[in-house]
Amino acid sequence: MFAEECETAADLSTELGLGVGLFQAGTNLFLNGMVLATMFLGGHLMSTGQMSAGDVMAFLVNAQTIQRSVAQISLLFGSVVKGVSAGGRVFEYINKEPVMDTSGTKIVKYHEFHGDIEFKNVTFSYPSRPEAVVLKNFNLKIPAGKTVAIIGSSGNGKSTIAALLERFYDVNEGSVAIDGIDVRDMDGKWLRGRALGFISQEPVLFATSVRENIRYGKPDATDEEIYEAAKTANADEFIRKFPAGYETLVGERGMSLSGGQKQRIAIARAVLKNPPVMILDEATSALDASSEREVQRALERASKGRTVLVIAHRLSTIINADLIVVLHRGSIVEMGTHDQLKKQKGHYWNLIKQQDQGADDSRSL
Ligand SMILES: Nc1ncnc2c1ncn2[C@@H]1O[C@H](COP(=O)(O)OP(=O)(O)OP(=O)(O)O)[C@@H](O)[C@H]1O
Ligand SMILES: [Mg+2]
C-alpha cells in the first residue's frame, strides 16, 4: 500500500514538473521572442532608413530590462503559489472554531482553591459514537486532598472520566464541577494550564530535548526548577546518564526512550506545573517490575498534598488510596477502602484475585 501511495505521489510530481517545465519554456520563448522581434523589426526599420542604429540599440537595451523583470515575476509567481498552499494548511488550524463553547471565564484564586471534585448524574457518549453510552448516571465525589482510585477492566470508561474532568469532551447530561463550579463555566486555559495536571495513559512527548519536554508544564520555569521536578519524578538519574543529559533529543513522540522513561518525564512535567489536582492514568502494564516500582515511587511523591484521581491498573497503587471505586460498564458497582471491598468478595475481590493469579503465572515462568 505504501509503495502504491509513493507511486501516486511520484506520478503527481512528474505531472507537476512537466507543468512547471512547460510554463517556464513558454515564458522563456515569449521573452526571447520579444528580443528577437525587436531585432528583426529594428533591423528592418534600419535597413529602410526609418531608424538609426543608436535608436535600435537603445530600444534593445530597454527591452532586455523589461525581459529580465518579467522573468523575475514568473519566478515570484511560483513562490507565491507555493506559499499560499503551505499557508493554507496553517491557517486551516488557526481559523478552526472549537465545537464546544469556550466562553467560560471563571477561575479560582490559587490560595482559595481546594480541589473538591464532583461528578453529578453524568451521562456521556463519545460524539463519534453517540449510540454507545460510556457513562450512565455516574456520581462521584472526590474530597480535596484525598486520593481516589478508579479500577475496572479495560474499556469500562476509566480514561473517559479523566477526559471529562479535563473537559476534552462535554457531558451529555449532568455536570462535572471543581470546587462547586461547573467546568463548562471555567476558563479552559486556566483549567488545563494551572488547575489540573494530567499524566495520560500514553504520555505525549514532543520531538525536542528532554529539558524542553519537561519545561512544557510551566514555560517560564528555570533550569533549577526543572532539575527539582525531575528528581521528584525519579527521572533525574537516568536523564543525567544520557551522553547529552538534559539536551538529549527524544525523537518523534519520544520514540528513543523506554516506556518507563517516557512516563517519568511526563510525571516531571506535571510536577513542575504544581497543580492542586492531579489525574493519573496509569500505564504500568507495559513496565517490568523494577521500572514499575520507580514510576510508582515517583507517583507517590508527586501526589503528596493534592487531590488525586488515579486510574489504577496495579494493586500496589490501589491499596493506599482513601477511596476505591470499582467501575463496571460505565456505572459504579462498588466503593470503599481496600479492606472493606476485600471483605465484600464482589467485583473488586475478583479483580485483585485475577491479578494475583497473573503474578503467580509470571513467577512460575
Ligand atoms: N474517542 C473515542 N471515540 C469513541 N469511542 C471511544 C473513544 N475513546 C474511547 N471510546 C470508547 O469508550 C469506552 C471507554 O473507553 P476508555 O478509554 O474510557 O476505557 P478505559 O477504562 O480507560 O480502558 P483501559 O483500561 O484499557 O485504559 C470504550 O468502549 C472505547 O471503545
Ligand atoms: Mg484507559
What CATH calls the topology of the largest domain is: Rossmann fold
* Tally of distinct domains: 2
Helix/strand structural class: alpha/beta
| CATH superfamily placement of the largest domain | P-loop containing nucleotide triphosphate hydrolases
Q: DSSP strand (E) fraction?
A: 15-25%
Quick check: average pLDDT?
86
Ligand identities: adenosine-5'-triphosphate, magnesium ion
Low-confidence runs of at least 5 consecutive residues: 360-365
Cα distance, first to last residue?
40 Å
Q: Strand sequence of the main sheet, in spatial order?
A: 6-7-8-3-9-10
**What's the architecture of the largest domain, going by CATH?**
3-Layer(aba) Sandwich
Architecture overview:
- The protein is an alpha/beta fold and 365 residues long.
- It is elongated, with a radius of gyration of 32 Å.
- The strands form 2 sheets. It has a 6-stranded mixed β-sheet with strand order 6-7-8-3-9-10, sandwiched between helices.
- It is built from 12 helices and 10 strands.
- The protein has 2 domains: 2-94; 110-364, 3-Layer(aba) Sandwich (Rossmann fold).
- The longest helix is centred in the N-terminal third of the chain and has 46 residues, at 2-47.
- The model is unreliable at 360-365 (pLDDT under 50).
- Bound molecules: adenosine-5'-triphosphate (ATP) and magnesium ion (MG).
- Magnesium ion binds next to helix 3.
Show the helix and strand layout.
Elements: H1 2-47, H2 53-94, E1 117-125, E2 133-142, E3 147-151, H3 158-165, E4 173-178, E5 181-182, H4 188-195, E6 196-199, H5 210-215, H6 223-232, H7 236-241, H8 259-273, E7 277-281, H9 289-302, E8 307-311, H10 315-319, E9 323-328, E10 331-336, H11 338-344, H12 347-364
Helix pairs in contact: 1-2, 6-8, 8-9
The protein binds adenosine-5'-triphosphate and magnesium ion.
